[in-house]
Specification:
Shape: globular
Number of helices: 7
Number of strands: 15
Strand content: 25-35%
Bound molecules: 4'-deoxy-4'-aminopyridoxal-5'-phosphate
Order of helices and strands: EEHEEHHEEEHEEEHEHEEEHE
Length: 312
């Protein structure tokens, strides 16, 4: 398979040329912030659509602000860089991208110099038949310890430990509880459940990432597809075991069903009907098969910076 080039500080380079100094804060302490997003190929439009790119840029800047460093690129520069990655690699398929800003200065308090790379990779859908999850004995890091609502690379050691433990214990993925004992999220995804027909997700104050997919579900998909509002409330551990349906969502995870928690089967132990409907509506929306919310899809092969004005 053709190797994809990485955009690094202004140019596309081969994977083995995208390197960081070993003594940089980026390598030593994981001093970086990042975004993970997907772009979807739409055969009918002959176009690739980045989903909610602007929202990813906003969160990217908030993460940099929080971690006290910045990169010398405007949002237009960032858009141009994303376009260069996709066009330069002639990508005409679904693709996942990591945008990573990092500090190459030395020391814990280094704030500069900084750099930026965008790494495109082919990443298929996660499990469509459903994950078997466990409640992790690792606690979700508190927002008072590290800014878990934003995407700092070093946050993810918490998720790494929980994921490795889950796999060692024979599960696919962990679900975190926070320090108050309530359900938080997955290692790289937001948590939703359906209980007695109602769609429920933890509040943003539950030590979770401010997820863009979560917002898409709350603002658009759940009201439109299921004709109900999402209840944002604390979720207790035991509710996980008696939920009708449970799923993860995220830019990478899209909508990924969960079929059991701690070996308690959920519903009939198969992917639930509401999860199925939301998942297929989500895929139609991100690809632009569902023409609504054109403002959430940014075209790459069309005119520079154009939003896809489909259906207009
Ligand atoms: N929580 C964590 C810890 C994540 O890493 C992600 C993926 N970015 C999510 C939730 C989902 O966020 P989003 O919908 O913005 O991708």
């Amino acid at each position: 398979m053709r190797e994809l080039k990485i955009w690094m500080n202004g140019r596309l380079v081969a994977q083995d040329q995208a390197v960081l100094p070993v003594n940089s804060a980026a390598v030593f302490y994981g001093t970086n912030v990042f975004e993970g997003l997907r772009a979807y190929w739409n055969e009918d439009d002959g176009e690739i659509h980045c989903f909610r790119l602007q929202e990813h840029f906003v969160r990217f800047r908030e993460s940099m602000k929080m971690m006290r460093f910045t990169v010398p690129y405007s949002d237009v520069d960032l858009y141009d860089a994303v376009r260069d990655v996709l066009k330069g690699n002639e990508i005409r398929e679904d693709i996942h991208m990591h945008l990573v800003a990092y500090v190459t200065g030395v020391g814990l308090d280094a704030t500069e110099p900084t750099g930026l790379y965008i790494n495109p990779r082919r990443r298929g859908r996660l499990s469509e038949s459903g994950l078997r999850c466990c409640v992790s004995s690792w606690v979700r890091t508190s927002d008072n310890a590290i800014p878990i609502r934003l995407k700092s690379g070093s946050n993810y050691q918490n998720g790494r430990l929980a994921t490795l433990q889950a796999k060692a214990d024979g599960y696919d993925a962990p679900i975190f509880l926070n320090g108050h004992g309530h359900v938080a999220e997955g290692s790289g995804a937001t948590f939703f459940m359906v209980r007695r027909g109602r769609v429920v997700t933890p509040p943003l104050s539950a030590d979770i990432l401010e997820s863009i997919t979560r917002t898409t579900l709350i603002e658009d998909l759940v009201p439109r597809v299921l004709a109900q509002d999402v209840a944002e409330r604390e979720i207790d551990r035991t509710e996980l075991y008696v939920a009708d349906e449970v799923f993860f969502c995220g830019s990478g995870y899209e909508i990924t069903p969960i079929v059991s928690v701690d070996r308690f089967p959920l519903g009939d132990g198969r992917v639930g009907p509401l999860t199925r409907r939301l998942s297929s509506a989500y895929m139609d929306l991100v690809r632009g098969v569902d023409r609504s919310h054109a403002e959430w899809r940014t075209a790459v092969y069309g005119p520079r910076g154009a939003k896809v004005a489909v259906g207009a």
